[in-house]
Design brief:
Structural class of chain C: mainly alpha
Largest sheet of chain C: none
Order of helices and strands of chain C: HHHHHHHHHH
Distance between the termini of chain C: 36 Å
Number of helices of chain B: 3
Chains: A mainly alpha (133), B mainly alpha (87), C mainly alpha (249)
Oligomer: heterotrimer
Helix content of chain C: 55-70%
Strand content of chain C: under 5%
Number of strands of chain C: 0
Radius of gyration of chain B: 15 Å
Distance between the termini of chain B: 39 Å
Shape of chain C: globular
Helix content of chain B: over 70%
Largest interface: A-C, 55 and 67 residues
Number of helices of chain C: 10
Strand content of chain B: under 5%
Chain lengths: 133, 87, 249
């Protein structure tokens, strides 16, 4: 029982990221409305970002800004302990991912508006029926 | 985030639960404007989650981009198309 | 159909769950993500670039190439939306559906926005300039700046806002941002270093190499902020009026 509790505490963050990923994936596959598909894509992307950021977390660590760093410009300063700071590398990659995600969202929404102008609807089955006529 | 802190892990579990509920709700409501607003709330709670994990730059960007720009863009599109979706 | 989708998603979930059993424990300092390259970034960043914010120093100095292409991606997305939606040919009145005219009775919103927008813009400039010492940087400041223009366009009408910040100016700003970033890199090439190796600026400006790193990072963050600001407003203007730029939300 103790083992199971330790196992759950060590991994539950990843499981929630997994549930969000599956929610986004299910929405992208099975929803009929195109705007719901785009919202699911955005949920999927933020689930991935949650996964990466939780990989970089560290126990008892603080934010990745070195304290008392602006007092000396390259002069002597205290020894920096690696275990005191959260891993900054996943944060950098995820910054890029968030901004590219919003650019993709803009293009997807422009496509939806264009489809709406041509077919007058954004439900997928109605568009398919419109295309076959 | 450390297990010695008195309240932090309950906060984490609560935020994660809210995130899952909001994500499922954003996909199930029939009104598209409501889906856009729930998506904005989802972005905000994600930002809080990342602040709690000490990722302050990511949280700052998500608060500005996800809860600000993304929600406004989806809302702007939802007001140009039929507001009621079939599923 | 929905049952099939649910089964597919469930099986993907089971596979990923089995794969996640091998992941290192959450918040373990010895996990492989934190032991190979990031100790170098954490320990050496202050003495090689003199910037305390580790995320900004990795983003703009160690991985500056990726950030440049990210800026180009944002620029391309803004141009794509412009190409797809914007209609300016003659006889466009046949294609535009008439929308009900909205009476503007929102004096509270307009007064509040007039007080809020200057504060937002000064805060955005502070976030860009202070990105070396506090959370922030180019992207965050640029998005806040663009959001201030979007706020003005929502409170007043989009046409009123476009009289102040014309579409012409928006496009010029977005190009200028990318050119600043690439220009800093090309000047480093011309001065004898590698592309985006900021130490090459030290001889020309007469400062130490450490300060050249810091100033180079500030320059590229300004470029990123200008592009992001212009493209965020351009995305809003095109999407909320369906390309016609006549009436906003």
């Amino acid at each position: 029982m103790d083992d199971l509790l330790v196992f759950i505490i060590n991994n539950y963050n990843y499981w929630v990221a997994l549930i969000l990923l599956l929610t986004g994936l299910y929405g992208m596959i099975s929803k009929n409305n195109l705007l719901k598909k785009v919202i699911s894509m955005s949920i999927f992307q933020s689930a991935i970002i949650l996964f990466y950021v939780s990989i970089g977390a560290k126990k008892d660590a603080t934010i990745p800004i070195i304290e008392h760093g602006h007092n000396s410009h390259g002069a002597d300063h205290a020894v920096i302990d690696v275990a005191n700071y959260v891993n900054p590398l996943p944060h950098v990659l995820m910054l890029t991912a968030i901004v590219v995600g919003v650019a993709t969202l803009g293009v997807a929404l422009a496509l939806i508006q264009k489809i709406n102008q041509v077919h007058n609807t954004i439900e997928e089955d109605e568009i398919l029926r419109d295309l076959q006529e | 985030m450390s297990w010695d802190a008195s309240f932090l892990w309950q906060f984490n579990v609560l935020l994660l639960l809210m995130v899952v509920i909001l994500a499922v709700a954003a996909l199930s409501v029939k009104d598209l404007v409501a889906a856009a607003i729930i998506f904005g709330a989802y972005s905000f709670i994600m930002c809080l989650l990342w602040t709690e994990m000490m990722a302050v730059d990511v949280a700052f960007t998500e608060a500005a981009v996800g809860a600000g720009i993304s929600t406004v863009l989806i809302l702007g599109t939802a007001l140009h198309i039929k507001r009621k979706s079939k599923d | 159909m929905k049952l099939l989708a649910f089964l597919m998603t469930f099986s993907v979930g089971v596979l990923l769950l089995i794969a996640s059993l091998d992941l290192p424990d959450w918040s373990n300092p010895e996990s492989p993500a934190s032991t190979h390259l990031s100790p170098h970034y954490i320990e050496k960043s202050l003495e090689e670039t003199s910037v305390p914010n580790l995320v900004t120093s990795v983003l703009a100095d160690y991985r500056g190439y990726d950030t440049m292409f990210e800026t180009v991606v944002i620029f391309c997305a803004g141009i794509t939306v412009l190409i797809m939606l914007r209609r300016t040919f003659m006889g466009i009145e046949k294609y535009v559906k008439p929308r009900p005219k909205r009476e503007s009775a929102d004096i509270i919103l307009q007064s509040a926005v007039r007080l809020l927008v200057p504060v937002m813009q000064v805060f955005a400039l502070y976030v860009v300039a202070h990105g070396h010492h506090s959370p922030g940087g180019g992207f965050q400041g640029g998005v806040i700046f663009g959001a201030s223009f979007i706020l003005l366009a929502i409170a007043y009408d989009l046409k009123v806002e476009l009289k102040k910040f014309r579409e012409h100016g928006v496009l010029i700003f977005s190009v200028v941002g990318v050119l600043i970033y690439a220009g800093i890199g090309i000047v480093c090439l011309l001065l004898g270093g590698n592309f985006l190796a900021y130490a090459a600026w030290a001889k020309m400006l007469g400062i130490s190499e450490l300060e050249a790193h810091s100033l180079g990072m500030l320059g590229v963050e300004i470029g990123v902020a200008i592009t992001v600001m212009a493209i965020m407003f351009s995305l809003y203007a095109d999407l909320s009026s369906s390309g016609d730029l006549d009436e906003g939300l």
